[in-house]
Write a structure and sequence with these properties.
The protein has about 375 residues and is an alpha+beta fold. It contains 14 helices and 7 strands. Strand 4 and strand 5 form a beta hairpin.
Length: about 375
């Protein structure tokens, strides 16, 4: 008997074994009834049997064994993908999900071997095809399970960041009131430190919320208004000069720099790029900020000298939770590694882009924004 025929003839004992194993996946399985424990296993088993009966080329066989079987665009989720989503929502972890497939594989093969109905000439081919089909189902499940867990992680971070802003704002307001009421120098130093720490926490929470929105595919919110970026950037450079007294920052602008932008977000980009240049570039060297506009676009560039960024690291710079070369242990400890990721998302939200070149001891970050940005 071919393995596909054997599976069709023994669906119930196979599924009973799978159900019994799923029931041991505690504590996630403790609240599931028999139907929920089986979940999409009947459809997965049917898909495996169908796959065993279908013709396949050597190329398709290799792709399947590597978990690379292409998904048909517009087609509904497979049984393995849906099974993964429901297991994630039920509280299973990824090890328990994979263990279910190990148990299903073992159940089918042990029953088949015990039956003694194998066809010797075709046993090897059936075994190979069966294992490929199970491996493909595992790959589909793991991919969807991981994506679902990441989505919920981003939702959790977003909710956490949002909920923490309320009490933090109360702390900041109270500290500012105390600062105005305090006349003694020692107390004043404490309140100033409290306000500065609170503002730093607020910046971190804002970054966390932006990261969560971008990771969930919501993008960053913009408040587009007619604004001249020359004046916006000039004001931000003055603030940066005060905040970074050891850095020499030059600023120049040319051309048409007015348009529809979120001025606050552009200032955020500029602050991030200049702070990075001061942290990782040559100390005391000039950080050049240039703003140039034409009929269609405005380009903001930040140039610094110093050790070039290795080419293999350039593409990873804008990925979340990555940091540059450690230079200041205290500053790095307060950095989530989201700055350049958020810079890229701000550029995308404006319909623009951020690029970087680093060679010959010079690194240049360039933000390109269309003058009529549409969110």
């Amino acid at each position: 008997m071919r393995l596909a025929d054997f599976i069709d003839a023994n669906v119930e004992p196979i599924l009973s074994s799978a159900e019994a194993f799923a029931a041991t996946m505690l504590p996630a399985s403790s609240h599931l009834d028999a139907e929920a424990l089986r979940d999409h296993m009947p459809m997965i088993l049917a898909a495996v049997a169908k796959d065993l009966r279908s013709a396949q080329t050597s190329h398709e066989q290799l792709a399947k064994s590597l978990g690379q079987q292409p998904h048909i665009h517009g087609a509904p989720e497979t049984a393995a993908q849906t099974h993964a989503l429901l297991r994630a929502k039920a509280g299973f972890d990824i090890a328990q999900l994979v263990a279910e497939y190990r148990a299903l594989r073992a159940s089918v093969l042990s029953l088949w071997f015990e039956s003694g109905k194998m066809g010797d000439a075709q046993t090897q081919d059936d075994l190979i095809r069966f294992n490929e089909a199970i491996d493909q189902a595992v790959a589909e499940s793991v991919t969807y399970f991981t994506a679902e867990m990441d989505r919920w992680r981003h939702v959790f971070l977003g909710v956490l960041g949002h909920d923490l802003r309320g009490p933090l704002n109360a702390i900041l307001l109270t500290a500012e009131v105390l600062s105005k009421m305090t006349t003694e120098a020692p107390l004043e130093r404490h309140t100033v430190r409290l306000i500065q720490s609170g503002k730093r926490m607020k910046t971190l929470l804002d970054d966390l919320l932006d990261f969560s929105r971008a990771s969930l595919g919501l993008g960053l919110s913009l408040h587009l208004t007619p604004v001249d970026l020359a004046s916006v950037c000039a004001e931000e450079v003055e603030l940066l000069r005060a905040a970074l007294p050891n850095a020499e920052i030059s600023f120049r602008s040319a051309g048409e720099t007015a348009g529809s932008f979120d001025g606050s977000r552009v200032r955020e980009v500029l602050g991030n790029l200049v702070s990075n240049a001061a942290r990782y570039g040559t100390q005391k060297a000039v950080i050049d900020v240039a703003l140039v506009g034409d009929e269609r676009d405005v380009r903001l560039s930040v140039t610094n000298t110093g050790e070039p960024i290795p080419e293999e690291q350039v593409q990873a710079l804008f990925e979340p939770l990555r940091r540059g070369r450690p230079s200041d242990e205290l500053a790095e400890s307060a950095n989530l590694g989201l700055g350049l990721f958020i810079v890229r998302e701000i550029a995308k939200a404006h319909g623009g882009e951020i690029t970087v070149t680093s060679a010959g001891g010079t690194t240049v970050f360039t933000l390109m924004l269309p003058r009529s940005a549409a969110q």
